Amino acid sequence: MQQSLTPRPNRRLRPRWTACAVAATALAALATGCGSSESGGKPADGRSLKIIYVRDVPQPTPFDAPIVKGYKDAGKRLGDDTVFQGAPANTRASDPAQEKRLLQNAVAEKPDCLITTFDTPSAQGPEVRKAQAAGIPVVFANAGYQQAEKYGALTYIGSDETLQGRTGGQELTRLGVKHPLVVSLTPGSLPLTDQRNAGFKTGYTGQTTWLYMSLKEAAGTTASIAGAIEAKLARDPSIDAVFTTGVVFAPAQLAARTATGSRAAAMTWATIDTNAQILGAVKAGNLAFALDQQQYLQGYWAALVCDQYVRHGLKPVDPVMATGPVVVTQKNLAGYLKAAAEGIH
């Protein structure tokens, strides 16, 4: 991994570089002035800062565990009170009304800095501006690509979403795929999937069949999503790959692979995002590759940016601190499995 505050996402990162090492490099860079010197918050007394991370996803989830770990690890090293507030269990992710309410509740606690997963600008944008009007700096993490400058956030920390999609398309091309089925959210559902979809179309220019699902359908059962994938495959025997654009589809994708039988072995299966199940599928050869966005860094760097801005007025120059994509295959899987055992993936 490159030793810079904003790693270039188009270079394949080596899993031997642990997230902690990269975060330490970023800390050193910020601490030595590798950012803006405009005034941030006021605490120069060394007190513990209260930082709140609002994430609009029901907790707990395996995908979010590295985010939370990175965030908490940074808090311990910085001596800050890092509070993580996910959506309540059994609620719907990316629900605009809930996103608005979560931000309002966080602002009412008057934190020194606020981090949010910025999924829905129409719902979250006004609340972000209210936080800033109250003197609370804001960082976007995990979602909010290309939105930081528009809404005055200190930076966005997460995957280059367009590059995620483009890299997926390029990898399928490299593997000789002729006709992929791409499973994604319906256009307009979330900015990040729209960006991934657009990126895929630049990375793969051949014949493509799309299976779009609404947020409600994507929140359905594994069986229902798998059934939709299986139906597409049954109708078109020329489809030779299945590519999914997010972790929410992975269980159904793997179930559909099993149900497809002998045909599945001759096909290419791949996805965006990683978790323990996905890494296990890569190890077993059931997925040719997965695109990792290094969630641990999203939590760690978000706390770090808040701390350094409030204490010293330092902030990243770049509105995007990219943590991915990283192509994970059997060739570089060993490092990821070790990191997963440590809670970093």
Provide a descriptive summary of the structure in words:
This protein is an alpha/beta fold and 345 residues long. The protein folds into two domains: 19-160 and 294-324, Rossmann fold (3-Layer(aba) Sandwich), CATH 3.40.50.2300; 161-292, Rossmann fold. Helix content is 44%, strand content 17%. It is built from 14 helices and twelve strands. Strand 6, helix 7 and strand 7 form a beta-alpha-beta unit. Helix 1 (19-31) runs parallel beside helix 13. The longest helix has 18 residues, at 295-312. It is elongated and about 65 Å long. The two termini are 16 Å apart. The model is unreliable at 1-40 (pLDDT under 50). Belongs to the bacterial solute-binding protein 2 family.
